Amino acid sequence: MSTTDRRPALGKQLKRSFFARSVHEIAPELIGATLLVDGVGGPIIEVEAYHHTEPAAHSYRGPTPRNMVMFGPPGYLYVYRSYGIHWCMNFVCEAEGSAAAVLIRAVEPIRGLAVMRRRRGLHDERALCSGPGKVCEALAVSIKYNGCALDTSPIAIHARTEVPEIASGVRIGITKAAELPWRYGAKGSRFLSKPFPKD
C-alpha cells in the first residue's frame, strides 16, 4: 500500500442483507460507502440503478447465462463485459427473482493508490476510477468475480460514516428509459465520471 494513502475511518461492513431492499433505496445509500477488493479501493462516488421492469436493464428480457446472477439472491456481484472491452461491476439488490442491480460508476481512489496507478498505467488519481470500466481495472475485477458474495473476501463494503450531499440525474450512455433519474453521485466530487447538470 502507498504510505500516502488517505485513510478515513471505515464504517461497519455491510452484509448481504443490506441489499435485500429496493434498488432505489440502496443506490443513493451507497454514495460514500467504501468498496474494497483485496484491500484496494475507496468511497463509492457514483452509481446507477437498474430494474428488470425497464428496458435499459440487462434483466429486462428475462434470465440468460450472462445475467443469471441478477436473478439470484441479493448481495452478490454481477460482472459483465461492456462493448467487448471493459468489465463493469454491479451489486444485486432486492428479493431473489427481482433482477435489480446497482452499477458502480466511480470510486474515489484512496486505499492502495500505488496499486491502482500501476494497474491503470497512469498517475492522475482523478482519472483512476472515474468510470465503470476504470473502476474494475483499478480494482482488478473481472468475470472471475461474477457471483461473488459482497460480504466475503476479497470483497468488502463498509457503510459510510458521513452522509454526503447527493446529486441525481439521468443515467449515462443509454437510449432506452433514458429519462429515468436513476444516477446518483456525491455532489461536486472531482472523481465523478461526468458532472451532474447544475441545479
UniProtKB/TrEMBL annotation:
EC number per UniProt:
3.2.2.-
- What is a biological process (GO) this protein takes part in? base-excision repair
Presence of keyword Hydrolase: yes
Q: Which SUPFAM superfamilies match?
A: FMT C-terminal domain-like (SSF50486)
What GO molecular function terms would the record report? alkylbase DNA N-glycosylase activity; DNA binding
Q: Which family does it belong to?
A: Belongs to the DNA glycosylase MPG family.
From the Swiss-Prot or TrEMBL record, give the protein name. Putative 3-methyladenine DNA glycosylase
Native species of this protein?
Afipia felis
